[in-house]
From TrEMBL:
This is Guanidinium exporter. It is found in: Cell membrane. Keywords: Cell membrane, Membrane, Transmembrane, Transmembrane helix, Transport. NCBIfam families: PRK11431.1.
Amino acid sequence: MAWLALFLAGILEVTWATGLKYTDGLTRFWPTVATGALVVASLWLLSVSMRTLPIGTAYTVWAGIGTVGTVILGIVLLGESASPMRLLSIALIIVGILGLKLAH
């Protein structure tokens, strides 16, 4: 159950991080409210996962999911660079996340 909470927390991190782009520097009310709610939900699920998972593993996996997901959405939705170096870097983060999962 902790891993499910952690995965969902990571997905919500991707959503709120991407949502920040649409708040226009926190000046647009509804996107800011929605982003704030997603931040709270993501952190709550992260804290739930930390009841049983080691803090270093949980935080690193959460941040990794958020990083990889946000980069991918930036490429797909916002036309950001998909250079070989960026893709290799994403792959290395994924390998690190999998390593932490397997080492637990």
